Amino acid sequence: MEFSFASAEDEEQIKQILATSGLDHRDIRPSQLQHFLIVKDETALTLSGVVGLELSGNFGLLRSLAVAKAFRRQGLATQLINKIEKYARSQKVTALYLLTLTAEDFFTNRGYHTTDRGSAPSALQDTNEFKNLCPETAVCMKKQL
Ligand SMILES: CC(C)(COP(=O)(O)OP(=O)(O)OC[C@H]1O[C@@H](n2cnc3c(N)ncnc32)[C@H](O)[C@@H]1OP(=O)(O)O)[C@@H](O)C(=O)NCCC(=O)NCCS
After folding, report:
1. Dist. CA 43–CA 66, nearest whole Å
2. How far is the CA of 107 from the centre of ligand 1 (A)?
3. CA quadruple 120, 51, 101, 145: dihedral positive or negative?
4. How far, in Å, is the centroid of ligand 1 from the Cα of 22?
5. For the chain, which residues make up each domain, given as ranges?
6. Is-above-0.90 flag for pTM?
């Protein structure tokens, strides 16, 4: 498996994997993809997984975590999270936030805890994910890095 940062060329495959995983991708722009990590299957060169980061000062929004069905339960999402956290630290991010409808337990097992959505930094509350894409019923989670 080959991990790398995404580029504009990966946009279609990223949107496809997000769509088939039930995640919204309408707001993703090619310029954001430099902060998205992808993992590819070296043999088929198809996209197996993705996770995205939106940076805002010392805070980061973790988003768009998806692994293609055929590659699940092999630890790929765990590796993507570990690597994006390392990258976030290198960008001086001190706390990561995310919204999830489906993966609260997954993130709890990786050191994230639920927090009040209203307590997230205002810059993150202004993102499309907070404002338009994730319903009020989504759980907000935070991890101090
Ligand atoms: C959530 C998601 C990203 C997890 O991807 P994944 O690559 O299967 O995740 P991992 O393999 O790293 O870990 C998944 C779980 O399977 C377990 N697991 C890993 N390898 C395993 C194996 N060989 N056999 C059995 N279980 C295994 C892990 O322990 C983990 O369980 P835990 O959360 O209780 O610790 C994936 O299911 C997905 O894309 N879902 C749809 C989109 C989604 O909901 N994204 C989250 C939005 S915020």
Report:
1. 20
2. 10
3. negative
4. 15
5. 2-144
6. yes
Atom 16 in ligand 1: which residue has the minimum CA distance?
A: 73
Hey, what CATH class is 2-144 in?
Answer: alpha beta
Ligand 1 atom at minimal distance to the Cα of residue 100:
48
Query: Residue 85 pLDDT > 80, yes or no?
Result: yes
What is the number of helices (H) and of strands (E) in the chain? 5, 7
Residue 72 is predicted with a pLDDT of 97
d(CA 6, CA 15): 12
Which atom of ligand 1 is least distant from the CA of 78? 12
What is the helix (H) or strand (E) element at residue 29, kind and residue range? none
Q: Residue 91: which residues within 8 A CB-CB, separation 6 or more?
A: 55, 60
- Judge whether residue 75 has pLDDT over 70: yes
Query: Is the pLDDT at 112 greater than 70, yes or no?
Result: yes
What digits encode the pLDDT tens for the residues 4-47? 999 999 999 999 999 999 998 988 989 999 999 999 998 767 89
**Among 26, 67, 75, CA closest to 46:** 67
Torsion over CA of 27, 77, 39 and 10, rounded to 10 degrees?
A: -10
Residue 66 Cβ contacting ligand 1 at under 6 Å: yes
